[in-house]
Amino acid sequence: QNLRDGLSKQYKSSTKSKRRRREARSANLVDNIEEMIQSNKVVSTQINHLHSYIQENGDSASEAFVVQLFVQANLQILEAFKQDATLLSKFNEAERKLKACS
User: Fold this and answer.
1) Residue among 80, 70, 3, 6 at smallest CA distance from 39
2) pTM of full prediction above 0.70
3) How far apart are CA 55 and CA 76, in angstroms?
4) What's the CA gap between 92 and 77, in Å, rounded?
5) For residue 87, which of 41, 30, 24 has the smallest C-alpha distance?
């Protein structure tokens, strides 16, 4: 195992090589999920609202208010998943692919 780890670029079975593949799959999953979520109009609107608020208020933004905005956004995202069967099935498919590769 130490030899494979030392030559990680040449051996797919090395620990480093496995970790790199796992990290690449995870990053790909995150990108896919982010793209899928942002394609939903309700979610996209909420994300834009949060982004605008933070840009406008910066450091002066009330932490309690920002937390409340995030809670509200998360609830709307979950509601969008409940109401949009396509969004939910795409998310489930992405999770299945990640588990199959692990």
Assistant:
1) 80
2) no
3) 21
4) 15
5) 41
